[in-house]
Specification:
Layout lengths: L9 H9 L5 E2 L10 H5 L5 H6 L12 H8 L10 E4 L1 H12 L6 E6 L4 H8 L3 E6 L12 H5 L4 E7 L11 H13 L3 E5 L16 H4 L3 E6 L12 E4 L3 H11 L8 H12 L1 H25 L4 E2 L8 E2 L2 E2 L6 H11 L1 E2 L1 E2 L10 E4 L5 H13 L4
Bound molecules: pyridoxal-5'-phosphate.
Length: 375
């Protein structure tokens, strides 16, 4: 058998080139990053405890105290239902390789964070896109599954709140998707890395692992908690055959996560109310500024205002592709926006991220450019 060949990850290659050199990073998908000092200051005695931390291997599943904290994010989930990974990315890679078999059919919410489709393809699975369209408000119709699923279908992959569109379904719609997966005996891989960033907490969906015994909920410290540098994520699942297969595969990827990351993630989860409050306040303020921007420039852009998360996926009205627009902004103003083609999506779209404190200065630079455009 040939060694695994995988498509280059278009968005990550783009970030590798520009993320750390652009003056205004306006397409990030995480919330404002915390410094180590800010995080330790959230809990009395945390800095001494951090200094005393032993830097040995940690448990493959993740330390029990950390898994308890993660489990407390869910209803009816225990520490035994949690498997910790080096970021959500590792969990995706491991699920697709350890749980699926070559030849399996997979239905993937699209456009998507590329690894949700590319890893399975590289593992020999057949992937069918489940397209979300701007014209339907980026909504997925649960009824579509009847036409997409066949006898060889093993799993459905969804991502709510969604990257890059910011789409969040109503609970009834999500439940209908879950029921459709259940009635067909499909695994539901539910990428929930933007959970807890609902602007109205009442809109938060139940986690897939809570309401479906074959649901795998993907979580991470990177997005809602603003701690991407910890590289710490998890899978939550009540089906222990799935979790066991993933744990056995992880022995060949990272074995275990970094002890400092586990310590800091547990601390952040204990203090999650303060962290989420800070991040949601930044998001809400920035979303108002973004909304004003699109109202002012209605002739140039169309957009769907998200109900959750730090990203939106507007479209240009004046060009069929956003590549030149994004390249011009980067060249002339140092503003980084992510062209839609990086998500395998309609080329006129682009991703804008508004989770960071310096968002408005970047948006101002975009305003300067578009003021020069005829409406
Ligand atoms: C939908 C989605 N899933 C997974 C990931 C990977 O998260 P991490 O970089 O924390 O591993 C991302 C990152 O952008 C994402 O947007």
């Amino acid at each position: 058998m040939a060694a695994m060949k995988i498509e280059p990850f278009a968005l990550e290659r783009f970030f590798a080139e520009h993320e750390f050199s652009a003056r205004h990073l306006l397409c990030a998908s995480d919330c404002e990053t915390f410094s180590l000092g800010e995080l330790l200051a959230l809990e009395p005695g945390a800095d001494e405890a951090f200094e005393a931390l032993r830097l040995g291997y940690t448990e493959t599943a993740g330390g029990p105290a950390l898994r308890e904290e993660i489990a407390s994010l869910y209803k009816g989930i225990t520490a035994d239902d949690i498997l910790v990974f080096a970021g959500a990315q590792e969990a995706i890679f491991v699920f697709m390789n350890a749980v699926l078999n070559a030849g399996d059919h997979l239905i993937v919410h699209s456009p998507c964070y590329q690894s949700l489709a590319s890893v399975a393809e590289a593992a020999g699975c057949r992937v069918t896109r489940w397209p979300a369209e701007a014209g339907r408000g980026w909504a997925l119709d649960p009824g579509d599954l009847a036409g997409l699923a066949g006898t060889d279908t093993r799993a459905v992959v969804v991502n709510f709140p969604h990257n890059p569109t910011g789409y969040l379904p109503e609970k009834e719609r999500f439940t209908a998707i879950v029921e459709s997966a259940r009635s067909r005996g499909l695994l539901l891989f539910s990428d929930e890395v933007y959970r807890f960033l609902e602007y109205d907490a009442a809109d938060r969906l139940p986690a897939a692992c809570e309401i479906y015994e074959n649901g795998v909920s993907l979580g991470v410290m990177s997005k809602a908690f603003g701690l991407a540098g910890l590289r710490l994520g998890w899978a939550a699942c009540r089906n222990h055959d799935v979790l066991g297969a993933m744990a056995a595969f992880k022995d060949y990827t990272t074995i275990c996560t970094a002890a400092p990351s586990e310590f800091l993630a547990a601390l952040a989860l204990r203090q999650r109310d303060a962290i989420l409050e800070r991040n949601l306040a930044i998001l809400r303020g920035n979303l108002e500024a973004l909304s004003d921007f699109f109202t002012r420039h209605e002739g140039l852009f169309s957009w769907q205002r998200p109900r959750a998360g730090p990203v939106a996926f507007p479209a240009l009205r004046f060009a069929a592709a956003s590549d030149d627009f994004c390249a011009g902004l980067l060249r002339d103003r140092g503003v980084l926006l992510a062209p839609g083609r990086l998500f395998g999506a309609a080329a006129e779209h682009f991703r804008i991220g508004f989770g960071r404190r310096d968002f408005r200065s970047g948006l101002e630079a975009v305003s300067d450019t578009v003021r020069e455009k005829p409406a």
